[in-house]
């Protein structure tokens, strides 16, 4: 059987090469995009609130008969709320404010206290917090999908 020779012009060689490269790029696209997916950030320790931002220092001083209560502002990647300060209230008195990734430790008498948080856009949200040395005394400040602040008690 005689062999056939096909003549390919330079223009069609370029077109074939471009088509092959395009096909390879399309096949590799899911792999490339998979590497771009947002991954959760690595856990980092919370930073303490700087002393100059403590408005009522009596709440942050340890003492006999007082129980440590840790209030943390969870980290977020959401830039809409990341840079908002969140004033923190104990029993109606503003004590400090929390920025993204910060925490403050209050020393409170055992019993029921009100821990409140707010932003410039939110009313004060209060949590009825039972302080007891037998429990984990930690609260978490977060923002919901509508960018509203909230606070809840969390396990350690």
TrEMBL record:
Keyword set, alphabetical order = Signal
- Lineage: superkingdom: Bacteria
Look up and give the organism this protein is from.
Paraburkholderia caffeinitolerans
Q: From which lineage does this chain's organism come?
A: Bacteria, Pseudomonadati, Pseudomonadota, Betaproteobacteria, Burkholderiales
This chain belongs to which protein, by name? Answer: PEGA domain-containing protein
| Residues annotated as signal peptide | 1-37
